[in-house]
Write a structure and sequence with these properties.
The structure is a homodimer of 310-residue chains. With 310 residues, chain A is of the alpha/beta class. Chain A has 14 helices and eight strands.
Chain lengths: 310, 310
Amino acid sequence: MGTIAARDQGARSMFHGLSAFPITPADEHGIVDVEGVAKLTGRLANAGVDSIGLLGSTGTYAYLTRTERSRAIRAAVKAVGGKIPLIVGAGALRTTDAQDLARDAEAEGADALLLAPVSYTPLTEEEVFQHFVAVAGATALPVCIYNNPSTTHFTFSPALLGRLADVPNIAAVKMPLPAAKTLSAELAELRSGPAGKLAIGYSGDWGCPGALLAGADAWYSVLAGFLPQVAIEIAQAARAGDAANVASLNDRLQPLWTLFRAHGGLRVSYAACGELGLIQAKPPRPILPLADEVRLRVRDALSVLTAAQL
Amino acid sequence: MGTIAARDQGARSMFHGLSAFPITPADEHGIVDVEGVAKLTGRLANAGVDSIGLLGSTGTYAYLTRTERSRAIRAAVKAVGGKIPLIVGAGALRTTDAQDLARDAEAEGADALLLAPVSYTPLTEEEVFQHFVAVAGATALPVCIYNNPSTTHFTFSPALLGRLADVPNIAAVKMPLPAAKTLSAELAELRSGPAGKLAIGYSGDWGCPGALLAGADAWYSVLAGFLPQVAIEIAQAARAGDAANVASLNDRLQPLWTLFRAHGGLRVSYAACGELGLIQAKPPRPILPLADEVRLRVRDALSVLTAAQL
């Protein structure tokens, strides 16, 4: 029991702190630029984020083949060199495909999996439960449940999260920002129920410093994928409970949050990576690069931050 | 001009009447049972439906590889033997993949394409427009726009439908049942605007006899995929404007419509194909077969219909 509890604690700790979600640069045919992946992930590992979320939604996992996803993982594992955990998205519409992707990620050296209930036909709770049991059982890697209804079109109930918390290697959940209640109330509710065994983190960057202040375990951050130092500074203030400093740092981010909300963090990330000189890449079509006038607004939003930070 | 108008008319006529959407039987690894496809599609062609929608949502196109989709098309083209048009789903998340699927369908002998704006990252109107232009331009086949927000998570505005109606080989739209207005009002609105050039059909079987009564051009029918005679009878009554007969025939279908709405036409189709002795197949996981107690209700709902019809 002691050993299992310790192992569980170790698995959960992988899903604590600031997790950075970079884009996955690729050409128009979906062939991944592995040098670009190495550059982006190596930079994040050196910057001091707590983990990297490779092939998340911003990492366009849904648009890449199994082969290309493996190539991206291989490049990132080498570039990160074990400095921090590499959490890899293994989502796919088919259960069998997601199992294959999970095994690939383990074989390539990933430290953990992020698993989204990707849906086309709307799924029932039982279907998602059985899918997660099947995919989690395909490897020994700890799994973070990816709860992001805006892309997967499935919403986990607290009861389903509770059922999944009992699956041996399911260790964490990545939540969307709550629509109808405060972060503190949602965290208290989840932690007092059967889902309380899971490490609980949030995505939706504009609300995540607040989530850390409210005691969430993790911030799954698109911002940290291209401006890790900016995200680290605000995450540290939030985890220290310094609400005044969080508010002050967050003020400077408002122009970027406005762009995230209007155009999606993914499109903004591609533009930001170009503006920052990190990498020139386009999102997979049908997703289009931001129009020039929006890109100029991204430039302005970044200049406020980079004048102080870079 | 006359030739183009005549060709347009021909393309649009392909999207008139009752279009039957069968399941695509496949094994647990997604390998298509081509004999099963031939059996199901040959039966539909002989039954006298106006067209077949192969690899629609009910045909689990989203869950099948490019290779398996080609195998299914080849089997159906052979089985249908040109008796009626074969409309083939070419949807994919990536624009380049959808273009490849469209070319494959044309090469295998499909008569038309059904194109869904499959999304993961929520798409903008311009992204969907450019996607449709790119995929429609990949072949000479007429294209039906697949407007089904419950699976694609994208809703076409009348303005976007109007823009797409000007793309040369985009000839039709498959609409969801309107939520907030009557079918007559929606049809009048669409037909008086720039989308009026398109043939306008509906899916959502329970409301489609009413759509035909209201003057819609087509019923894209899951029911017709397994009970073509039942659907033909009610479609004929509706197209003849016999509202009383439609109401009477529709009454017998209420138990089935209740099941469609509660469990989805796809899951009911698999169960019905088994109950009717057409084919024993399971949907692709994560989608699960209906539980035994629901399957018994499918059996009961079918027995009302088949006692009179089969």
